[in-house]
Every structure is written in structure tokens, then in C-alpha cells.
Design a protein that fits this description.
The protein is an alpha+beta fold. It has a domain of 99 residues: Gyrase A, domain 2 (2-Layer Sandwich). A four-stranded antiparallel beta sheet has the order 1-2-4-3, with helices on one face. The radius of gyration is 36 Å and the shape is elongated. The relative contact order is 0.08.
Length: 199
Amino acid sequence: MRLNINLATRPYEDARQFWQQWGGGVTALGLLTVILLYVVLFQWLEAREASRLIRQGQEQIAALDNQKAADQALLNRPENRSTRDRSQFLNDLFQRKSFSWTQVFEELERVMPPRLHVVSIKPEMTPENQLQLSLSVAGESRERALDLVRRMEGSRHFQQTQIRSETQYSGGNPGDNVQFDIRALYVPETAFAAARRSP
């Protein structure tokens, strides 16, 4: 009888067979590790750059806020109050002069759905110095008013359009079953002309 006994302290291993079986997987894992390290490093650099830009923006905002506060303090001095009040009056006057009834009615005619009409219209200035229109419209259904709101939002002259109230009528003018109060910010044509002129 013959026995195969290996008396070596480090038995022979077939490394070639091991690398044939596992070499591709180890290489793929190594490549995946390198790719993941690259992605992590790239994202870290991007996050650092974004943080730097945010910090820079916050510093600019703080500087502008400080400048605004200093300018406001200068305007609030007793010797400058008359200039400030005159300037505010003229700015309000220019804003009101930019309102054109003709342009408003032309734009409303363009966006007004059928079987809906304007009952009243009132322009007024908001505390933010924006021109706001309060409209009362009447028609046969709520869907017509919702269609008007959608069309006004699609127009470049109206912003933040919303229905403020709704009143149902049992009698009155034929076809006027519902009246709606609508409010919207109005952007006159002069604002677009100024935007086109500015760089």
C-alpha cells in the first residue's frame, strides 16, 4: 500500500488556480473602490465650493443690509426728511402714472373667457410699492372665473392672481349667476421696457 504524505511545513498551494478563480473579482472590487473614492472626493470638493459660494453670498447680503441700514439712517435724519418725503411722493406718482387704463383693458379683453365680464376694477398700491388690481367679474359659472385666473397667470402682466370671494345670485342679469372678486398684481408695459434696457 502506498501513502501520499506531505512532510513540508508549508504545503504547496496552486496560486495560479486561485488567481484564475478570484483575480477578476478582486480586480473589479479594487476598480470599484477607486471609482467610489474618486466620486466621494469630487463631491466633497463640490460641497466645499458650494459652501464657499454660500458664505460669499451671505457676506454680500450682510454688506448690502449694512449699506441699506446706513442709507436709511441718513435719510431719517431731520435735515434729510423733506428730501426723503419728496422722493417717496415722486416715486409713488411715477408708479401711478405708469398705470394705463387702455393697456389694462386690452390685456383683460385678451384673457377674458366668454360669458364672463368685468363689473368693477380698482387699482391700488401695495405696501411693497406694487400695483394691485381688485376686479369684480360676473358670469354663469365658477369654471369661467377659474379659467380667467389661469389665463391671467399665463399673462406677463398679471402675477399672484387669486379669487378672494364668490357670491351666488338667484336673480339679476341673465347669465350672471355668480360674481367673483379677484386680486392680482399688475406689471405695466413700462416695467418690461425698463427690464429690456437694463443690462
